[in-house]
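Help needed: design a sequence for this.
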């Protein structure tokens, strides 16, 4: 059975992130949900599905945006007054975003980045500092 378009897109996004040298295949994970405490105790990136969108294109075709939610996680020290890990989190965010802006992913998808929540408050309760944005892979069908 072949992979879905979304899974191919997520694999391509993962490859672009690993190519930066900031992460390895061990700390860029593809999951159903954007949290995985057991696998990323010190931090990394979770790629998970986000809402897709269809829009009309030319030549009786449609374009479908397959969206990948990129969640960057750093283990939290649980101190809201200590911003030492904020620099790490925001540095990772910039590196990841720059690696994915308007790239050809796997020579089949053009990626665009939709900026999202810079710091995710709910992650703090799960002992993480987190940041999120969405990568859209455009596919003509």
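Sure. Designed sequence:
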């Amino acid at each position: 059975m072949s992979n879905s378009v979304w899974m191919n897109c997520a694999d391509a996004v993962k490859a672009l992130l690993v190519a930066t040298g900031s992460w390895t295949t061990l700390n860029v994970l593809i999951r159903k949900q954007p949290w995985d405490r057991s696998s990323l105790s010190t931090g990394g990136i979770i790629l998970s599905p986000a809402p897709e969108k269809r829009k009309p294109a030319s030549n009786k075709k449609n374009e479908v945006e397959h969206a990948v939610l990129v969640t960057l996680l750093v283990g939290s020290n649980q101190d809201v007054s200590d911003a030492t890990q904020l620099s790490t989190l925001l540095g990772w965010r910039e590196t990841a975003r720059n690696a994915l802006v308007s790239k050809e992913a796997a020579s089949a998808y053009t990626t665009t980045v939709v900026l999202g929540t810079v710091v995710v408050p709910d992650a703090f309760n799960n002992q993480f500092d987190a940041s999120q944005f969405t990568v859209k892979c455009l596919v003509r069908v």
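Residues 62 and 106 are 20 Å apart (CA to CA).
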